[in-house]
Batch of 2 targets.
Target 1
Amino acid sequence: MARKRKNTRARDKQARRERVHREQRGSSSQPSEEPPPRGDEPPAPATIAPPVQSAVEAAIDEPVLTPIVGASAENIEVACRYWQWNAYGHGESTLWSEAVNSIATDARSIALTSATLTVPGMACARCDGPLVLSSRAAFDRVYRLANGAEESCAGCDESTQVQLARFAEPKRQARRIEATRAAAVREIEAGFRQAWESARSARISDAYRVELTEDDIPEVDVRTEAVALAMLRYAPGSEVIAPLCEWSTPLSASGDGQSEAVASTVRGGLLRIHPQTSLDTFVWEPTSFDQGLREAEGLHHAVKPPELLNRYRAASATHYSPYGAGLGAAAARLDAHLVARLEPAGMIAPRQGELVATGRRGDHRRGPAILRLRAGPTQPSGRTREPPDPSA
Ligand SMILES: [Zn+2]
């Protein structure tokens, strides 16, 4: 016997959808002769056009899917997917397009209460009414095993009716509605969350862009200049200064006050924050989308847009020197400037005092990186750039 193959699938599917749409529009003129699968359902709408199939195919006509009046489009879609085959034939396993479990929770019950799949020209063995199939197994019995003469319709099949009664229980219905609602909420929330994150990215792009300048480098206090020089020389990489938290060697031995020290170089205008810095490095109000959602009492549309506060976690930020035509040149120019500024012999007396104080503080708290800078010619091993000429 002929076997329907995949190349007929698209045609079958299309034809079935078209029939379903016709039914939904109520434009079919043929009267219905099919009882619904359950007594409490409204009568089925007009039957659909003859199934598309060639004369050489199965002796049993292709089944006809008819939506039940009042069923939602979403549930009718479940019914279409439940009954969608890729291939079937006498003596051969039916190939279904999707596993039942992957379609929906209670997919079979939804399918049976949203549409009828009727075998044309065959009657129920018990009530003699149209043979409305009760399951994929029933489909197999009719089309694979050719046992249609013994098959009961969905309305006469006890186990089907037991399952449909359980499906209709209010508790179970409530659970299903709740699950559907929760899934919809999750989807909506994902959209709002994404928009909120995009807004954060946009704020950072607006506020922090790489801007290079040939302007004079500001002159600031000794300690800030020493920290900036330490960052230029100890950070991995040579163009941008990677976040302190990624360094293999800490800026100071104890790690205390590092963020504050780094932030002082930005406040002093020596370094700037690079836009590749991660969004969470900055402090936002609300602090996160979830925080905003809590404040808005769960109303997604009421979540405040992310506001960028004037604070950041300096140790997690990427920095750069803006003083040159390119990032590498700018780092070199700042390095040279700082070396010259920190040369003790060239310092005016108050700065020499600061230098001593920085050294003392470094001995005690700030650790060796700053101290080594003060000592001068010692070259850190991790450095990749050549030392600039102080006279440059
Ligand atoms: Zn029956």
Note: The chain has 13 helices and ten strands.
Target 2
Amino acid sequence: MNPEAQTLSATTELRIGGNKLKIKLVIPAGEVPPESLLPTLHELSDLIVDGVEQKVHRQGVEISCKKGCGACCRQHVPVSPAEARLISAIVENTAEPARSELKERFEQAALRLKASGIMDHAMNYHRLSEAETGAMVKAYFDLGIACPFLDQESCSIHPFRPLICREYLVISSPDHCAKLEEEQIKRLKFPVSVADTFSGMDGVSQKGENKYVPLIMALDWTEKNGDEVKFRPGPKWVQSFFADLSGSEIPDPDSAR
Ligand code: SF4
């Protein structure tokens, strides 16, 4: 334990989808919100994605996603409450004049969503039937709202982008993403989803429902709901996450060095 930074660290080896992944966990020791886990989960997600990318590359399959292609960044991007708060903090910590520019983009995007008549469905994504979800996703896409972080068709917060963005990689033509031709879009499949696992753990309401926030509503949502944060000791968040990811009990990370 580092007494000054009050963190615990441990290096662990995971077996995921036939790959051995070594990761250093740096965990806040005290009571923290779930977003404190995100730096570690970004790293874990990138390791899992890299492993699958290398595997398909060996099979002669190429990933179509490249820097400068933001074809998927006009789709509905549901993030967890913790990620919505992180997005809000990223914007708040951006230096001017970029901060005001970003806020303006979020505001304009939210106004367009509010005017579209699909706001209720977009905000309650987790409660929709499959048919309703399909209709909402298509209607959202037809609005053509670019993610506020999209700059020259590249992600301006690439190292901090949400987990769902990290796990969205395709092996089909980018043209299908640009037109949302769902039948033709071939997404890379991963043995586990860090995004889904984290959302399930972070966003479960008292009624047991998952909660998601459309990325473009992150600032608005955080302003209204930012205080509803659950604090737990960092090791407990880690324990819950890995138990959910593996579907089994893991050793208590309180023993982390
Ligand atoms: S956060 Fe980045 S990768 Fe995700 S939708 Fe926005 S621009 Fe695209």
Note: The pocket of iron/sulfur cluster is lined by residues 70, 73, 77, 147, 149-150, 155, 157, 161-162, 165 (CB under 6 Å).
